[in-house]
Amino acid sequence: MTAVDHDARLELAYRRLLLAYPAGYREDRGEEIISTLLAAAPPGRRRPTITEAVDLVYHGIRTRARATRRMLASPDGADAMALAAVVSLTVAAAVAVAVIVGVSLLGQPVFYRYPERGYPTPIRVGVGLVLATFPAALACMWAARPRLARRLAVIGSLGTIGLATWLTLHAFHVQDARQAAFEVELQNWLNVPDETLEPSNLFGLVTLLCVPSLLLVATRSTSTQRQRVGWGAAPAGLLGTAFVLLTTTDLLQRARLAVLGPEGTSTGPAPSLHDSGLTQGVVVALVAAAAWGLWRRPRSQGLTVACALMLPALGYTIGTLVTPMAFRPGWSSTEGLAQNLLEVVAVSAIVATLATLAITSGRPQDAPER
Amino acid sequence: MTLREPTFLILTSLASGPRHGYGIIQDIAELSDGRMKLRAGTLYGSLDRLVDEGLVVPDREEIENGRLRRYYRITGEGRSALAEAAERMASNARAATARLKMRGRMA
After folding, report:
1. DSSP annotation string for A229-253
2. pLDDT digits (tens, 9 = 90+) for B61-88
3. Does any domain span residue A232?
């Protein structure tokens, strides 16, 4: 191997290590750093030393972190919030669909106790209206009608809050009824219909899937960011809509009946999303992102509204951490709570990591750090 | 303003005139008698901060053997910060030396 080959190999290795830096920074400073690295390398060296590699990766990550901090503190912080919402939403929707498909294919006990006749009409209509505001607002945004998009977003958000309030009150009523049934007839308490409780779970998902989306379009995105954010929101909205349609109609139940027979629809352990801690994790991540943004930009009206919109979701989250235990054998055990909390932390970390990666690596106008 | 050692040495190196990245690394190795070997990641991280704080500015760019070399120059503010840090370090060094001498006499 010639000296030229050695140099080329070493340069390639350095360029790979520079991937730790943000793309914008590499574009501006990459050649300069490569030049310095090659000049400092002794003749005949084929690959970077370990200390060089650690030094470059460490400072690359620090540069990315600094770029993220700057962006969150800048007027584009709102866009970062929106992007974080998209990432959270995509994760939530993808996992939701994966759970449904997986449970159906594997023939496990039903997703959760499902009403034979589907959800009451008012719930379907309410969910449908709330859901409809998202694609409508998104379409307005793409059609360069941001003002109308924001109005639709506000209407949809208020609708979600109203739906949330009604369903939550309804769920509390059902809790009382079930508790009474449990105390009176211990052996048969599982047979007490609980389908009326499920709208509470449904509400959480609707809130999680809709509010961030609405918040997304309500955010005053810059023109350069609008298209990127819109494309990110589209699959999330699609998955979320598909999920809610599946769970609010009896399509899924009919399919399961046809494939698995009545045994496959028996009630069993309820692997619903709130059990997985996913919804809590997403809510915690979103609220944390909003709080962080608000702290950095205390006078931002958009972020203040964002925080207000997330409060019902946060309430739901706290509720789902506690109430599921009241409807299961062994409900007094605290293991479920600890597990939920652990999962919240894990999911929050994943969502936050994804959001950070999305924010720091994909921005075309990622200004070079100096 | 407190300067960390790499930052202090970078400013010291630039105090005698503009230099490019590799030139700074070489100069610092000489200044510190080979004790301090600055890595490229650390160098450019420090330069970023110094440029942000207005202590250093990019001076010019040159192509040498097909490679880009960007020169950096210390600013007036950078000279003041370096002078202040040097004075503080000298004062600390004097104090430390005096205490050591005092301890030596007592012993």
Report:
1. HHHHHHHHHHHHHHHHHHHHSSHHH
2. 888 888 889 999 999 999 999 999 999 9
3. yes
